[in-house]
Design goal:
Shape: globular
CATH architecture of the largest domain: 3-Layer(aba) Sandwich
Strand content: 15-25%
Largest sheet: 9 strands, mixed
Distance between the termini: 37 Å
Number of strands: 18
Structural class: alpha/beta
Radius of gyration: 26 Å
CATH class of the largest domain: Alpha Beta
Length: 515
């Protein structure tokens, strides 16, 4: 991707390294995350305008501590070390480091000790609340460095070598808990490094279109369209780039939300003139899921069946040399992290993994974007709000929101209940305030009274969460009147339901989806 300015973030294992990249991009500067195992010569080839060293869970003095390449400093570009990044600089540039008696985690008050472009625009007479998460601390800065900030527990909470433009802070400016953290990062980018805001979704679209045309040439491309924001943006973007060379395949697995397939396919055909094939495979999927209750088994059946159906349809497309996928930047980062992919909690929600027999090259126009940036691209491409802001939906669909066996009757009940949840969130203007809201059909029935009759019917659970990227989430505090309206409508309008409960667990320890 051709960009005016570029910041390279060296990942030392912090859980919030992605947040640094997001904050830099939000400032309008392109950023990339690279593992600390990558040589400085490889980083130099990327021609960075600035480098940020991330935090991490290790001690710099550990035998297996993430490595430091001194060549990074020799590149001559501004450097900012954060937490572990600060300790790494101190330890390797001649400072003194020591393990703290107690790990410091939480808020601290930073006192400014010296003027610095890093503090530009901040009230240096006041204390600044910052967020700490560290064990080691700097006892003495390296030669050429001066202390520019301290806290009650850390005498050197920020240090700088103004001549070489190397800065380091013990706290995390990228997290929301640090007051004015965004300003501090902006100061590093614009006051210290002298960068400009050139990373926009408009410029991304222009570049992505040109690069796609150049890569694809006159070949054919197949895109698996799910109706989600990622695959939809890929389809519309490539359609704009190569037109009828693109063939989109929408596989209806019978596990979609109410009228979802018809709405998305109909809109895209009408407004974007997509070359789109609709494959109705609902009966096949449901027949193979009959009697299956185990969540992992459901996923495997759905995944394998999807591959089978998709592959069969794809083989009828002439001149198809490329497969388009909605890979996002977090997927790329995860695959190259210095620790490797995260531990598997369950099979991935998004069904994928196409057979090697397809023998196609991948085209992934969104692989440099975060989820929020994909939504901005969708707006640039003219997609409507009902697609841009559609809540995330798992690849296995309603199969993992029906706990237990999947049947046509249970799907009907859940679709009706879920539609009420969606409608009420929209009507109350909460749909775009929350990350995700949906209904779950539980594998039990309870006694109720409806009219003069006792009932023994199904239970629906409401799951509504707040999140930024689904890595963590907390249950949304919906007003009680909205919850009451949702519950009342589901019980009165959905035949077969007599009780509604609310899921008030966070992630972690729970997950967003129930299976």
């Amino acid at each position: 991707m051709n960009v005016m300015h570029k910041v390279i973030i060296i990942d030392y294992g912090s859980q919030v390294t992605q947040l640094i990249a997001r904050r830099v991009r939000e400032a309008g500067v392109y950023s990339e995350i690279h593992p600390c195992t990558e040589a400085a010569s490889a980083i130099a080839a990327l021609k960075p305008d600035a480098i940020i060293l991330s935090g991490g869970p290790s001690s710099v003095t550990d035998a297996d501590a993430p490595p430091y390449d001194p060549g990074l400093i020799d590149l001559g570009v501004p450097v900012l070390g954060i937490c572990y990044g600060m300790q790494l600089l101190a330890h390797n540039l001649g400072g003194e480091l020591a393990a703290s008696e107690d790990r410091e985690y939480g808020r601290a008050e930073l006192e400014f000790l010296a003027e610095s472009p890093l503090w530009d625009g901040l009230d240096r007479k006041a204390l600044l609340t910052v967020w700490m998460s560290h064990g080691d601390k700097v006892l003495a800065p390296p030669p050429g460095f001066t202390a520019i900030g301290r806290t009650p527990n850390v005498d050197y909470a920020a240090m700088a070598n103004e001549e070489k433009k190397i800065y380091a802070v013990q706290f995390h400016p990228e997290v929301a808990h640090t007051d004015q953290g965004e300003r501090i990062l902006h100061n590093f980018l614009f006051k210290v490094a002298g960068l400009s805001s050139s990373w926009t979704m408009s410029s991304f679209v222009d570049t992505a279109l040109a690069e796609s045309r150049d890569t694809i040439g006159d070949a054919g491309v197949i895109c698996g369209l799910s109706g989600g924001i990622d695959s939809t943006v890929v389809a519309v973007l490539l359609n704009k780039a190569i037109g009828k060379q693109l063939t989109c395949i929408f596989v209806d697995n019978g596990l979609l939300r109410l009228n979802e397939g018809e709405e998305v396919v109909g809109y895209l055909r009408k407004h974007f003139d997509l070359n789109l094939r609709y494959v109705d495979a609902a009966d096949l999927f449901l027949s193979r899921l009959e009697g299956v209750e185990d969540p992992e088994e459901k996923r495997k059946i759905i995944g394998h069946t999807f591959i089978e159906v998709f592959d069969k349809e794809a083989k009828t497309v002439d001149n198809a040399r490329f497969l388009a996928q909605g890979t996002l930047y977090p997927d790329v980062i995860e695959s190259v992290s210095f620790k490797g992919p995260s531990a598997v909690i369950k099979s991935h929600h998004n069904v994928g993994g196409l057979p090697e027999t397809m023998n196609m090259d991948l085209v992934e126009p969104l692989r440099e974007l975060f989820k929020d940036e994909v939504r901005k691209v969708a707006v640039e491409l003219g997609l409507p709000d009902f697609i841009v802001w559609r809540h995330p939906f798992p690849g296995p669909g309603l199969a993992i929101r029906i706990i237990g066996e999947i049947t046509a009757e249970r799907l009907h009940i859940l679709r009706q209940a879920d539609k009420i949840v969606q409608n009420e969130l929209v009507a109350s203007n909460w749909y775009r305030k929350v990350w995700q809201g949906f209904a779950v059909l539980l594998p039990l029935k309870t006694v109720g009274v409806m009219g003069d009759d006792r009932t023994y019917e199904n239970v629906i659970a409401l799951r509504v969460v707040d999140s930024v990227d689904a890595m963590t989430a907390d249950w949304s505090r919906l007003p009680s009147e909205i919850l009451a309206r949702i519950s009342n409508r589901i019980i009165n309008e959905v035949k077969g339901v007599n009780r509604v409960v609310l899921d008030i667990s966070s992630k972690p320890p729970s997950t967003i989806e129930w299976e």
